[in-house]
Each structure stands twice: as structure tokens, then as C-alpha cells.
């Protein structure tokens, strides 16, 4: 146990594999992080997803020198995980709460009914985040 966390080696292995796969291709890695985070966060709650991915992003950022353009990977993780949670009813705790409140008020919203609109909102909002990340990568 290190720092209160149990080390299984799986995350470390994934982090090293991701670092090797990226191999200096930071912009494609940023887009992969953004869209994969959005997709996975639609089915896994944001907090455990980000907690799991943080060591991987940290390894990627450190492999790129830890400063400058590599910091965009943190933004991609945060934005993707946040916006991806809007895609499904289980993507974020707030969605579950709202569905419960709506049902108590007599307006049942099914999982697929929520997802039909949530996916559209998510794809549009994640696509709108791409220019922001581009600016953070190429300008700032």
C-alpha cells in the first residue's frame, strides 16, 4: 500500500502502455482522451473514472516533459469526463436524481428516452470542446 492506495499494477501497466502508444503524438492523444473519456463516462460515473484515469494522464504528461502542451491532456480528461456524463441516465449522479424527481412528479423518463437526447447533447458539446482544446494546445 502506497499513500493509502492499493497498488495492483494494472493502472501502472496501462499508463506505460498508453505512454508508449502516444510516443510524441500529443494532439491525437488529446483527441483520444477527450472522446474516450466522454464515451466511458457515459456508462461509468465521472468520479471513479477520473480517479482511475488520473495516473495514466499523469504518466503521459510526465513522459512529455510535464509542462507546456502536455497539460492539455488534463483538460481533455476533465472535459470529456464531465460532458460524457450527460449522455446516459447513469453517466452522472445528478442524472439519477433528476430522473427520480421527475418520476415522483408523474413524468417517467426511461433510460433510452434520456439517452436519445443525452447522446445528441453530448456529441455536440464534446465537438464544441475540440476548438477550445486546439487553442490550449496550439496557442497557449
TrEMBL record:
It is found in: Membrane. It holds the Pfam family CitMHS. Keywords: Membrane, Transmembrane, Transmembrane helix, Transport. It comes from the Bacteria. One of its GO terms (cellular component) is membrane. It is a multi-pass membrane protein. Its main location: membrane. The keyword Zinc does not apply. The chain crosses the membrane at residues 32-52, 72-102, 114-135. InterPro entries: Cit_transptr-like_dom (IPR004680), Diverse_Ion_Transporter (IPR051475). Residues 1-80 form the Citrate transporter-like domain. GO terms for biological process: transmembrane transport. PANTHER family: P PROTEIN. This is Citrate transporter-like domain-containing protein.
Amino acid at each position: 500500500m502506497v499513500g493509502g492506495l492499493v497498488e495492483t499494477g494494472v493502472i501502472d501497466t496501462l499508463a506505460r502502455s498508453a505512454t508508449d502508444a502516444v510516443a510524441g503524438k500529443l494532439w491525437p492523444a488529446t483527441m483520444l482522451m477527450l472522446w474516450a473519456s466522454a464515451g466511458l463516462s457515459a456508462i461509468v460515473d465521472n468520479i471513479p473514472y477520473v480517479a482511475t484515469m488520473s495516473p495514466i494522464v499523469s504518466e503521459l504528461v510526465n513522459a512529455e516533459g510535464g509542462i507546456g502542451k502536455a497539460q492539455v491532456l488534463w483538460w481533455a480528461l476533465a472535459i470529456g469526463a464531465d460532458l460524457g456524463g450527460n449522455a446516459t441516465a447513469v453517466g452522472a449522479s445528478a442524472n439519477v436524481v433528476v430522473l427520480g424527481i421527475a418520476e415522483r412528479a408523474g413524468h417517467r423518463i426511461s433510460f433510452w428516452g434520456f439517452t436519445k437526447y443525452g447522446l445528441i447533447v453530448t456529441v455536440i458539446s464534446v465537438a464544441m470542446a475540440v476548438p477550445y482544446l486546439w487553442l490550449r494546445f496550439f496557442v497557449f
